[in-house]
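Two records follow; treat each independently.
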Amino acid sequence: MTLEIPREFVNLILEQSRAEYPEEACGVILGPLGSGKALRIKPMINAAHSPTFYEFDPKDLLTLYREVDDLGEEINVIYHSHTDTEAYPSRTDIAYAGEPGAHYVLVSTRDEIAPESEFRSFRIIDGQVTEEEVTITD
């Protein structure tokens, strides 16, 4: 599989990740139900306020699910940053991956790399991690 994502969304994710450092940043990208298209980005608050873990606030998550249902959308991408490690799902990320149809995007904000070089996407299904190609569109 390939994730097709607008450059604007990539830039917004990277900006959010840098702005929220040293905490992990997180959010979702939504699109019309069944389309697989990334059409609307929604940054979320990391309720854990942690440099090593992210968690959507339960009230924000409930609001998100209601909004998605009302608008006939689905969550196509769940993204978050890793502050000091590579952009690869941790054991915790794998354990909490509950949207088998979603792309899981990770970016790294560690100092020794350029964050854009570690913008990666994965599918996580039943504990199995598969990296996928990312196509950035203009």
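The next record belongs to a different protein.
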Amino acid sequence: MQKFGPLVQLDKPAFVHETVEIFGKAHIGEGVSLWPRVVMRAEAREHVIGPFSNLQDFALLHIGGGQGAIIGCHTSIAHRATVHGATIGDNCLVGINATVMDGAVIGDNCIVAPHCIVTAGSKIPDNSIVAGVPGVVVKSRNNFVANRINAYSYHHNGLAYARGEHRLWDSAEFQAARKAEQARLEAELAAMEAGR
């Protein structure tokens, strides 16, 4: 059974699993999916999850460094990842079991590798891949398409789960739609880069 405090605002999420627990103040954006055992605590400040993002199984958000966790749009927080009072940009992927600590800021289109620890106060530029303990930028690459297609997959999977369907990704229809969306995103990225 979902446990939400009175200050939790749900703005038409795609899917919120029954085991999700949210304490304190939080805003959950449109199209967000929250998967099994996600926990958010905000004894002060506020957590904000941007539209079409997802928090996967056992993800944890907590306040730290005087702020809540701020998650951008079309961003995936993977299984067992922790965001502790940090800001994650748009179109990002925080990998399995990664930790992003107090006051850290992850730019847009970034990947935080699995098991990475991004230390408190770190500033990660847009289009970075961060890995290691402590996390350092190991490559600069625009991850817009890969990260957006991951968020797209989770958004549509969330809609399917809300209907009681648990095998969407195996369907030919979804595979075709995903391929078309990837082509659209690649064209969008090419247009953005041509306009610079």
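Discussion point: The helical segments are 144-162, 172-194. How would you locate this feature using only the token line?
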